TrEMBL record:
It comes from the Bacteria. Pfam families: Gluconate_2-dh3. This is Gluconate 2-dehydrogenase. InterPro entries: Gluconate_2DH_su3.
């Protein structure tokens, strides 16, 4: 670990965070959205996939990822664009998850959530390499859905969580304090220092 003694939340009562920033952080930490978009099966399936893509075995409380994806889809919020080979975001998620489960059934005779860890990883690597049954992936491209939508979104949500900020040495939002030293290998006094 590069920043073993760093805790970005240790700056809670310093000039690095103002009331608005603390409010946003408190909501991210303590107000986890309920399931509103995914079916229970889709939620469980995505949770199983995310557990393989972004494993968190060292955390007693893993960073919640699926609730925030569900919240994004329920609110129909996205990045403001979509790839020309993808259906609308909500449709892409439903089709992509269904296709992953169908690939699992075709290859292993059971759904993804029933697979052992090694089989899950092998299946996801095949999807990443686009080594799939094209008849299953008619609505979304396998690799495009997996890399450009699922993995990108899961990683974005993971690294938007304050617990992940500490492990990468991120000092938190620039507001209200701001960052002054922006050059290569420069850091402000309140930023984390790498362990050597």
């Amino acid at each position: 670990m590069l920043y073993p003694h760093y805790d970005v939340l240790g700056k809670w009562d310093t000039p690095s965070f103002d009331d608005k920033t603390r409010g946003v952080l408190a909501a991210r930490l303590h107000v986890i959205p309920e399931r509103r978009f995914f079916t229970q099966h889709e939620w469980t399936l995505l949770d199983s996939i995310v557990a393989r893509v972004m494993p968190q075995p060292e955390r007693a409380q893993p960073i919640p990822i699926v609730p925030w994806i569900d919240d994004m889809l329920s609110s129909n919020r996205g990045e403001g664009f979509r790839n020309d080979n993808m259906p609308p975001m909500r449709d892409a998620w439903r089709a992509g998850l269904a296709a992953i489960d169908l690939e699992s059934h075709r290859r292993h005779g059971c759904g993804f959530v029933e697979l052992d860890a090694a089989s899950c990883d092998t299946l996801l690597r095949a999807i990443e390499r686009n080594q799939v049954d094209a008849a299953i992936w008619t609505t979304v491209p396998a690799r495009g859905f997996f890399i450009d939508i699922l993995v990108k979104t899961a990683a974005g949500i993971y690294y938007s969580h304050p617990a992940a900020w500490s492990e990468i040495g991120f000092g938190g939002p620039a507001s209200p304090r701001g960052y002054v030293r922006l050059g290569f290998d420069e850091r402000d006094a309140w930023e984390a220092k790498e362990a050597r």
